[in-house]
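Side project, low priority. Logging it here so it doesn't get lost.
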Amino acid sequence: MYLRIFVYILALWTPSSFALDIYIGGSETPALTLENGISSDSMPNSSITTHTPWTETTVFEGFSLSDLLTEFSVKNADIIAIGLNGYTAVIPSDDIARFNPLVAGKRDGKTMKVRDLGPYWIIYPFSEMEGTEAARAERRMVWQLKSLRIKSDGDVQP
């Protein structure tokens, strides 16, 4: 446990690169790796202007989860998001269709760093939500994202 805390603190202060690995189904090899808040050239850039429970109204830029699914020719899949600290959330396909969450790599035009909850952060249009809908979205807004796993039918949740 102490080693995990030390590694987490070290990650906050270390200026080295951080990657976001994207996996399809049960594969152990990433289908795509992104570094330092940079989006894939193959996916369109998207933005959401919203506040979050942790920020004032901010412009977040990156790529949408629906564009990610399109990139890999996947329809109606849940996505498992895992942060550097091991926090895990499942983003249901219904959320992707209804809210089109973003994998943000920039905040107000600046590449996010680990100490700023980056380099990648799942962002929902939180300003447009209320009540239980907002509470569910808050639990799914994984920051310091290290991996995404696009689930296919029959996959086991981590």
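Brief comment: Residues 6-16 have pLDDT under 50 and may be disordered.
Revisit when time allows.
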